[in-house]
Amino acid sequence: MNLRLVVLIGIILTCFSYTNCTFKYSTESYHSLYSTVGNPNISPEYDCALRAFTIEMAAYIAPPAVKTNWTTLTQSAFQMNQCNNTLYSTYQSYNRHHKAFNKPLKTNQQTCYHKIFVHDIKGNDLFDGTFEQPKKTIQAALSLTRILRTGYGNENILCIIIRGGTYYLGTNATSTSSQIGAIALTSNDSNLIIENYENERVVLSGGTLLELKWSVHAKTLTGGTIMKAQIPSSINLDQFNELYIDNKRAIVAKYPNGDPSTQGLYSQDPGFSYNSQSWISPIHRPSVEIHIQEPYRNGTVFSNYQLGVGGGASVFNPPTSFWSTTSPPQGNNYVVPRGLVVKSDALPHIRNWSEPTTGLVHAFHSGYWGSWIFEIASVNTSQNTIMFGRGGFQEARGSDSGGAFYISNIFEELDSPNEWFVDRHTRTLYFMPNETMPDVFVASQIPCLISVSGSSMENSVRNVIIRGLIMTETSSTYIKDYMVPSGGDWSVHRGGTMYLTNTKNITITHNLFTQVGSNGIAVIDYNGETQITLNEFVWLGESGIVLVGSTNGIDGFSVVSQPANTLIESNLIHESGIYVKQSSPVLISVSRSVSVIRNLMFNIPRAAINVNDGFYGNHTISYNVIFNTVRETSDHGTINTWDRQPFLSDAVQSDVPSLWQHTSYIHHNVLYNNYNSFYPIDHDDGSCFYEDSYNFQVYGGKKNYLGHSKMDHHEIYVYPDTKSSQGTGVCIADQAPSRGSSGWNEVWIENTCILYNSSVPYNIWNCDTANLFVPYLASNRIYIPSGTQVAFTCNINGTSAQLSLDQWQSYGLDIGTTVQSAPNIETIIQWGREMLQNTIRNNL
Ligand SMILES: *[C@@H]1O[C@H](CO)[C@@H](O)[C@H](O)[C@H]1NC(C)=O
Ligand SMILES: *[C@@H]1O[C@H](CO)[C@@H](O)[C@H](O)[C@H]1NC(C)=O
Ligand SMILES: *[C@@H]1O[C@H](CO)[C@@H](O)[C@H](O)[C@H]1NC(C)=O
Ligand SMILES: *[C@@H]1O[C@H](CO)[C@@H](O)[C@H](O)[C@H]1NC(C)=O
Ligand SMILES: *[C@@H]1O[C@H](CO)[C@@H](O)[C@H](O)[C@H]1NC(C)=O
Ligand SMILES: *[C@@H]1O[C@H](CO)[C@@H](O)[C@H](O)[C@H]1NC(C)=O
Ligand SMILES: *[C@@H]1O[C@H](CO)[C@@H](O)[C@H](O)[C@H]1NC(C)=O
Ligand SMILES: *[C@@H]1O[C@H](CO)[C@@H](O)[C@H](O)[C@H]1NC(C)=O
Ligand SMILES: *[C@@H]1O[C@H](CO)[C@@H](O)[C@H](O)[C@H]1NC(C)=O
Ligand SMILES: *[C@@H]1O[C@H](CO)[C@@H](O)[C@H](O)[C@H]1NC(C)=O
Ligand SMILES: *[C@@H]1O[C@H](CO)[C@@H](O)[C@H](O)[C@H]1NC(C)=O
Ligand SMILES: *[C@@H]1O[C@H](CO)[C@@H](O)[C@H](O)[C@H]1NC(C)=O
């Protein structure tokens, strides 16, 4: 067989395993704007080998059609150009000899009872929708399906097949809601497929193409030229909050300069200012407090349901928050500062601001737990003071003060290439080109492209497939309504590019969500068996996929308006949280049984996956490859969980209400814990009922904090001590265990932990041999630097002692555990490879 034939067969076979070959894919490549992604506390060769292994595993979980792309992307995002091509090159040859793992996703072949074609250029909405006589708009095709259903019945699958082209859904849009799409499916639209025609490139834009007559407005001192153009009267200026030029987000005029898409606290030039002088103190406004005494979870730090209504919580919609109570565990009546005083000359053009109230302040929370965006209410230039208007609700914890900040949407700050500003009074668009003027200017007009909304849970929309589309150029929503879903640190905007509510069996597959202002997909309240597979999400204003259910207060038992049995599989999610830093590729809040499997996620401001509460549980997070997280925030992990607010559900036994959740499972993930990520899996405040196993965790150990009932087994932790400055530094950090409320029923067995330069494997707070209250430890393999002595630290007779393994075991602890000298990096990687590949094979 000649080589060309082999290649051809390869392509055919690859395509064969998918209903639709087009795995939509961003054309974006990666720049090396980022500061180093590696771990400075470890030998560069070792670090490069661990990065290379992560890339190998990304290729391993990749769908075959995009294997090379995932490899190329991860190499670029991991800056492999910093590494010498020595040790880590082994992964390439290894890959060649091993049949990569891939369980093709089950793809039911659906037959269309009737096809309606849409063609933007050749179509006409008066046509009949045949291939030869296509409709012009998707909306007209949808109307036709509704007419056809009166004859065909509701059970036949109707298909809307879209021909290649760009569909500007923002043009003259009637709804600007982030919950009602330009294409709005309702309860009457079950059994529908909307997809691209063959491999044609179908772009759904949330904007409208601008036809502009440019003229020179002014030359700047730096030699740039500010151009101006009149904005057509059909453009809705309220929704024109993003400008996309040649399919990329342009920069709303800002100070300090910098592109929020590609610059942030992770880059050498962050585009943020650290020159705040002080923050103007908030005014505490008490909420009406709801405290449920019964039922409660005993044996738990966070035992009771509580909620603040109104007062400080009034900035949210609805005006309620777990955090807005006077003396909650960890709470303090939610507040944010009223304004900002900057150091003199920190904003060199502030005296020239002609209309400061157009402006926005983007500022980090003081603890870098997220960020806020405020409208500017007023400035006092003699005092260097900016007072805030609406905003500050884009995370739920609040604080008296903020951190790094930037100012945007001020005309006088338009002084750098690719910046723009709209003067709403004169309807003038100003823009500074980078030498030559670009061609295609698109003004955002709507945040939501497609909504699938049943009128009720009983009357849900069923059996819809959305496939093969590129969704892009939507409005931002960061200043719109936010709500606090539960007891995690999050607030969330319950809308997005796609919005789903009251649905069953909706499949969203092979789509590309790129350059969107809001969230990618918002899965809100009841949605059964949603499948989100083989999509790419990139360049997102907020999160990738948000799952947000609701309850009636504590009651999530008789009220089941929550996403249930969601599958999020084989997606590529990166470059999220361009504006909102308390955001993630995947948010799970008040949801049942979510599976997040085989996804690749990187370049993220905070956690890749955040589980905001202990509602129901039964989540599975497995086979994911995650790195470059917590790039701009702090005190967090690549995967983060919280469990502070109890809810009733039938998680423990069907038909029996309980405040306890079902166990959730985190296994076979590769978690490279770089940037500010403290723990690969940060089981933060109150997290309970997790079984974590077979994860390859680089630079971090296990964490327990104010929770209980978690089990870790067969984990591999690599060099957790190399991040000791950031709160961990050990195989287990058992923080603040307290009999009867936290730290009980914690199990850590059959794990492998390799220390780099430390011989202290555990940090168990309050360890005292006279009164032992420690996790159940057994049969672990601990590796320490050769030539060192292991030191299990624990108090004996009131003073801290360093125990040998024998001494430690003499208290009945860690039976079966061994301590040996650390092997070399190749051995460790080989253990990882065997663990992941063998167990994956066994699980097929
Ligand atoms: C994806 O990889 C293929 C080769 O397998 C390449 O031809 C294509 O250009 C890549 N796509 C992108 C967007 O990089
Ligand atoms: C690459 O090789 C050079 C020269 O041997 C060495 O100085 C450098 O530390 C190496 N870098 C890495 C990342 O291995
Ligand atoms: C949008 O509205 C404007 C002004 O009413 C009109 O001129 C234009 O034709 C409309 N465009 C479309 C695509 O309907
Ligand atoms: C659904 O169809 C029913 C019956 O044809 C009709 O009465 C109702 O208005 C439709 N609902 C929507 C949301 O279109
Ligand atoms: C919960 O309370 C019951 C009854 O007071 C007690 O028997 C049980 O041990 C408690 N559970 C925990 C975990 O404290
Ligand atoms: C600001 O305004 C002053 C006079 O009002 C002017 O001299 C100065 O050049 C302006 N600065 C900028 C950056 O436009
Ligand atoms: C700015 O603050 C100074 C000092 O408090 C005050 O006198 C002045 O009136 C303020 N200016 C404005 C525009 O509010
Ligand atoms: C402007 O163009 C130069 C040269 O092509 C490029 O290096 C630079 O990144 C561009 N700047 C912006 C803001 O696009
Ligand atoms: C889910 O929807 C798909 C596509 O419409 C259909 O083929 C499949 O049978 C549905 N599954 C169930 C369980 O209804
Ligand atoms: C747990 O989730 C799985 C899917 O991962 C589902 O099949 C199962 O029914 C769920 N169990 C419960 C008790 O909800
Ligand atoms: C290892 O730790 C020792 C003692 O804390 C320190 O002196 C040494 O520099 C460390 N070595 C490395 C490679 O970090
Ligand atoms: C601890 O104190 C007890 C009684 O004071 C003593 O018998 C024992 O030897 C001490 N243990 C150690 C390890 O010092």
UniProtKB/TrEMBL annotation:
Source species, domain of life: Eukaryota
UniProt signal peptide: 1-21
InterPro entries from the UniProt entry: Pectin_lyas_fold (IPR012334), Pectin_lyase_fold/virulence (IPR011050)
Keyword presence, Signal: yes
Entry keyword set: Signal
Protein known as: Right handed beta helix domain-containing protein
Source organism of this protein record: Adineta steineri
Source lineage: Eukaryota, Metazoa, Spiralia, Gnathifera, Rotifera
